[in-house]
Amino acid sequence: MTSKKLPHPNNNSLLAYASYVIALGGFLFGYDTGVVNGALSFMSQPDQLNLSANNQGWVSGALVLGCTFGALFCGQLADKFGRRWLLHAVATVFTLATLGCFLALNILMLSIFRFILGLSVGCASTLAPMYLNEISPDRYKSRNVNKNAVAVVVGQLSAFIMNALLGSLFPKWHAVWRLMILLAGIPAVVLWILSINLPQSPTWQVIHSTREKARATFHRLGFPRLDIKEVIDQVQEQKKPQTAFSLTDIWHHKALLYLLLAGTAIGLIQQFSGVNVVMYYGTTLLEKVGMGANASLYGNVLIGIVSSIATTVGSQLTLNHSHQHLLLVGLTGNVVCLSILTIIMQTHFLSQNWLNLLVLFFLTSFLALQQGLVSPVTWLLLSEIFPPVVKSNFMSWSTTVIWLSNFIISLIFPALVHAVGIGNVFLIFAGSNIGCICLTLIFVNRQYITAINQQFNHQI
């Protein structure tokens, strides 16, 4: 596409407003996946919900299970009702479910409301980047979509900071976990109010309304005339019936089968590399190695800060380096960090202060590699490797694999720590990262994937 001189997005008040409001969906996603990290130890107290290791897994996993279904059906709902309406509905469900979690009297109520909360979180995780992409002129797509990625880690960091502050202010008030969870409702209410004034996606308007309404929205968002024509033509082309592939066709089509397996492998790598073990259970992990409750909460803040910085740096690295090579570097670094953590945990001559310091250092190093290289690269690969004829179906399957893997790990992790000890858990995840390296070498063959896409693009 030819380069066009566009006004800076800050000069387009509607585009700037819309991009930041929509990115609040990513903030909610980050905040609610992070808030359980510090709240879990408080809600597990005998005078609260008295959670066992297995029950801790259910509380964390219930949200992720809801995310699986929220992400799975988000595309259909967004296509039928529109991006703006769905984001408004997500904020509504998020607010009500957060209130339900705050008032939960037992583990069953908490798990049910966290599952409902997961429906909105999973939907937001898919909807926000799609909505941002469709309202942004071509020159600003990456910048605006990246706002959502940054909002996710900022949301997690905000949850960690609030948990640390509340845990320090009220260390003996075990019911403080309810306040930690309730605070997540504030950005949800803000999103609910501000989303009323968002512009509808002009791409959705082309499909479901009239070209005139879409053109008016495009102009308000600062799209140049040539870009408007190109987008409308592309959407009209996509509306034409395309070749459908059944599961039997895919099974007998080697190229498509390879892409499906590649998407599945990338989804598994994204989760089995171990990122959400730290993001969901970071405070619990630090307490297990001997840190006090307050020190663990503030150690978790450091983890969140490192995660935010690494995401910013990693997004720049992906612009200029091979995605496969970055993924391999990140996974190899994970193996090194987790292996060293295993050795540290088996060493008995270190003082408690040195043990705490080394664990925190290598845990944050692991997270820097994961959030700076592995996580952004896997999401980028999933958005790039599928040809248009199968993109929506294969993306849906790959995303479902991510959330299901996330659910399994969230569910079994507390019981695993209880059964084999924290040092051996680090060793298990070091082994799973070696498996992820093997999956990368087998299925993330960039040249073969590019050749397959070119083949299908010529056919279409």
TrEMBL record:
Cited Gene3D superfamilies: MFS general substrate transporter like domains
GO molecular function: carbohydrate:proton symporter activity
Gene Ontology cellular component list: plasma membrane
Transmembrane stretches, start-end: 12-31, 58-78, 85-105, 111-128, 149-170, 176-194, 255-275, 295-314, 326-345, 357-382, 394-416, 422-444
Alphabetical keyword list: Membrane, Transmembrane, Transmembrane helix, Transport
All residue ranges annotated as the Major facilitator superfamily (MFS) profile domain in the record: 18-448
Membrane-protein topology: Multi-pass membrane protein
Subcellular location: Cell membrane
InterPro entries assigned to the protein according to its UniProt record, in alphabetical order: MFS_dom, MFS_sugar_transport-like, MFS_Sugar_Transporters, MFS_trans_sf, Sugar/inositol_transpt, Sugar_transporter_CS
Pfam family, one: Sugar_tr
Protein family per UniProt: Belongs to the major facilitator superfamily. Sugar transporter (TC 2.A.1.1) family.
Protein name, UniProt field: Major facilitator superfamily permease
Biological source species: Bombilactobacillus mellifer
